[in-house]
Amino acid sequence: MSDIPDELSYTKEHEWIAGLDEAITVTIGVTAYAAEALGDVVFVQLPDAGATVAAGDSVGEVESTKSVSEIYSPVGGEIVEVNQAVVDDPSLVNNDPYGEGWMFRVRVEGDPEDLLSAEEYTALTSGES
Amino acid sequence: MSRSTPLRDVHESLGATLTDFAGWLMPLRYGSESAEHNAVRTAAGLFDLSHMGEIFVTGPQAGQALDYALVGHLSALVPGRARYTMIVNERGGVLDDLIVYRLGDEEFMVVANASNYEKVAAELADRAKPYDAAVEDRSDRYALIAVQGPRAQEILATLTDADLPGLKYYAGLPGVVDGRQALIARTGYTGEDGFELFVANEDAVPLWHALTRAGEPYGLRPAGLSSRDTLRLEAGMPLYGNELGPDLTPFDAGLGRVVKFDKPGDFVGRSALEAVKDTPPRRRLVGLVARGRRVPRHGYPVTKDGAVVGEVTSGAPSQTLGKPIAMAYVDTGAGEGLAVDIRGSHEAMDLVELPFYRRNK
């Protein structure tokens, strides 16, 4: 069973969103479940800081040995920061998906896409595994 | 419903990610596929290959039957030795690539890919009809476990008295491993030294555990199909369905050397292959190394100055080179300056000779 921290929100595309309650800037990454399903991540492409995105936009890519997946922004707003460390060392996605493997930060404008609680995301992923 | 090998419960207990491969539920990886890949390059890896097919051809004319059915000269094979060969259709198109072991004067074992062995067994039976030879598909009775890597011989030597140093590459001998009857073959699909052990289904689990224990001090780890694929790609070895298929001849794949025109008698595909053997193919199989970090993958177009000049057949990040690599069919004469269209972005590639990796002997 993958780690699914209670305090985060989730998407059906296996991303997590932190900080939704406290601030207008949120942090986004992929879940441990997604990291395990991908296998060893070898390449991460992230958007440019300063770009404006709409909720549900494809903003980047995660490549593993066997597959490639798109990264979506679950919220609309301005990309205020991207994690250069994960670009330089994509294995951070596997080793610390909720920590050093974070991907980008968005200053939120408008309402996010339909998000899932930890409980709902647990149900989603146990249905798939 | 996927079929399972005798080792399925072992894979699950090791936490493997299982995947459907050619109708079989097989381990894709146990943990990190990069670590499994590196273990095979530097120490050893343990593979379950029980999905492969074993077809026995026996009888006084078994060798002649195989000479007619396959492109190789199998009747010339010395007992105890093996050959890489192919079965083609009348048009010279590849139906499968095979390893044929001569076990005795009148006994051969044909090892075929999981996706093809039923078709191969049926073709062999049909083609052997005029000969005094019997064809029997015994795939359901045999498991296949491979130990691959520079420490493979040391590991296997702790479990058998067989003369491993005397066993040459592409040779196989019957022996006893951990008290169980096995065909011990020095073959593989990783670019490393190593052994493939054909055993009865019921011996697969105890043999796997014995090899795991014996290999522990040497750094052996279980390895799944994901690392098997990146290992064979680095070694420039073709995969049926990617580099080989019914619309390609052995010459298209740069493997015309397996076609033995000088053997006696006719063989299926001879006239079609003789017609093309001196004709340069329209496309040839090449190696590509990416300058960037994005990975060229199966089916992506190869381009030059924006025009399509080929197609990627296999691609992956290479652990050994530290860069993405690919095999691709590219128009003869396309030359340098190639790119691969990776989801709309044309990524520069360097053209290299295959294989990407060759072990130090």
Automatic annotation (TrEMBL), chain A:
InterPro entries named among the record's database cross-references: 2-oxoA_DH_lipoyl-BS, Biotin_lipoyl, GCV_H, GCV_H/Fam206, GCV_H_sub, Single_hybrid_motif
Modified-residue entries (N6-lipoyllysine), positions: K66
Keywords: Lipoyl
Domain Lipoyl-binding: 25-107
UniProt cofactor note: Binds 1 lipoyl cofactor covalently.
Cofactor(s) demanded: (R)-lipoate
Entry superkingdom: Bacteria
Gene3D superfamilies found in the cross-reference section: 2.40.50.100
Pfam families documented for this protein: GCV_H
Family statement drawn from the similarity comment of this UniProt entry: Belongs to the GcvH family.
Subunit-level organization: The glycine cleavage system is composed of four proteins: P, T, L and H.
Function: The glycine cleavage system catalyzes the degradation of glycine. The H protein shuttles the methylamine group of glycine from the P protein to the T protein.
Name of the protein this chain belongs to: Glycine cleavage system H protein
Species of the source: Nonomuraea roseoviolacea subsp. carminata
From TrEMBL, chain B:
MF-aspect GO terms: aminomethyltransferase activity
Reaction catalysed by this enzyme: N(6)-[(R)-S(8)-aminomethyldihydrolipoyl]-L-lysyl-[protein] + (6S)-5,6,7,8-tetrahydrofolate = N(6)-[(R)-dihydrolipoyl]-L-lysyl-[protein] + (6R)-5,10-methylene-5,6,7,8-tetrahydrofolate + NH4(+)
Assembly behavior: The glycine cleavage system is composed of four proteins: P, T, L and H.
Membership in a protein family: Belongs to the GcvT family.
Role, per record: The glycine cleavage system catalyzes the degradation of glycine.
NCBIfam families xref list: gcvT, PRK00389.1
The name this protein goes by in its record: Aminomethyltransferase
Superkingdom of the organism of origin: Bacteria
Transferase is among the record's keywords: yes
EC annotation from Swiss-Prot or TrEMBL: 2.1.2.10
Pfam families noted in UniProt: GCV_T, GCV_T_C
Sequence ranges assigned to domain GCVT N-terminal in this UniProt record: 8-263
Protein keywords: Aminotransferase, Transferase
